[in-house]
Amino acid sequence: FSQTLISSPAIGSPFMDLEMDVLVVGAGPAGSTAARYAAAGGARTLLIEKRQEIGTPVRCGEALGRNWLEAVDLTPSSAFVAREIAASRVFSPDGTYLTVSGYAGAKGGYVVERDLFDRALAKEASRAGARIEIKTSALGLLREGDRVVGVVCEHLGETWDVRAPVVIAADGFESQLGRWAGMTSPLRTRDLVSCLQVTLAGVRGDAAYSDLHLGSEAPGGYAWVFWKAEDVANVGLGVPLSRLKDRAEVKRYLDAFIARRPGLARGEPIEEVAGGVTTSLPVERSAMAGLLLAGDAARLIDPLTGAGIQNALLSGRLAGEAAARAVREGDASGERLASYDRAWRSRLEEDLARHYLVKEGLQKLDDAAIDRVFHAIAEADLRPLTVPSVLDVLRARTPEVLRTFEGLGF
Ligand code: FAD
Fold first, then answer.
1. How many angstroms separate the Cα of 209 from the Cα of each of 112, 230, 243, 309?
2. For residues 406 and 361, is the Cβ–Cβ distance under 8 A?
3. How far apart are the CA of 28 and the centre of ligand 1, in A?
4. What is the pLDDT of residues 7-29, one digit of tens each?
5. Which residue of 146, 198, 250, 320 sits 20 to 30 Å from the alpha carbon of 38, by its own alpha carbon?
6. Could you give the CA distance from residue 311 to residue 284 in angstroms, rounded to a whole number?
7. What is the atom index within ligand 1 of the atom nearest the CA of 238?
8. Are 231 and 204 in contact (CB under 8 A)?
9. CB–CB of 227/88 below 8 Å?
10. d(CA 154, ligand 1 centre) in Å
């Protein structure tokens, strides 16, 4: 591959004499992981991030399954782990709860300091040999025919055309690169969840669990309490845009959720974050000639749990490996890069599709129906709590509820 810089950057600019094979846009979990594996695979890799600090501002509940760190060879470290999650509780509206081990399907989990976590991932990318430029934005795609051949970059008010045979778009759920390439379509308002979270200090509660609350306290979504210390918790909720009159309504839901729980209401806010989460199906195509979409940009957030870090890490790794392979072979065609699309689909697509249908079914249930389901499962005292055993109970006790979950063959 030829690596050229089209325009002439000023002497001393970070783009002077730059040559690269892989350009990664966005230094979140997907981008830093993609850059790390692309560089480790021998590709000259540049990671650009528009913000001036990787990892901030944090827009995250900060909970993560343990096995996902293993998937990207990352050792859990006190440098970014705030607290371990041994088990999760899922609450129905009347306070009945079920306890499941771990977090979001993983055996164990962590609440991380997300800013430090993202920086740890960027350091891994740097250790593997990737070059990182902050305060640098992608403004547009460079194309030759139907192939992406680079990105127009902006740094401190100056723009350059940076060419690379493989570009990885890891620019988050509102991915501009995906849109510019025509690979993402507009989201339905029911598939876009507006989230608000406050970190509260001086709170009291059962800090051994991560808690999820279903029902009309967060209609169509859920509320969460993730503990970062014995007396500090991330308390947040998400509601689909289709259920909101205006965005300020999320704040009213969160205030009411906290006010109803004295252990949380006594806390003082130390941080507030707002952001969006997609609960759609993944993009139909995540690879074309010269371009891969990874993480939220490929809409890989789990539509049921809203957890996105894990799939960002895995898809980032797969994208970085596929990019390095394409560079080594001198083939960044759509056909060659489609191996990336197939790789993440074989690992994730079935679960994402099933979780999407469960999410759609849950959105149709009112509080009374959710309570009935939880009562039936709690009374059956299933140990262990497995999907087949839960389904057996629901078939016998609440068949009318199961019928709401269309397409799942319950
Ligand atoms: P991001 O982390 O969004 O990173 C994208 C990066 O690209 C950003 O740094 C951005 O600045 C940069 N960028 C964008 N455009 C450009 C451009 N043009 N040029 C250069 N850089 C650009 N997931 C979990 O697993 N657990 C949770 O507890 C959890 N809680 C959440 C709570 C909230 C309130 C929200 C909003 C989300 C939550 N998520 C959670 C989802 C999770 O944060 C995302 O799924 C995850 O960050 C996706 O990683 P990513 O690398 O794909 O994208």
1. 14, 11, 28, 19
2. yes
3. 6
4. 555 555 666 546 799 999 999 99
5. 146
6. 16
7. 34
8. yes
9. no
10. 21
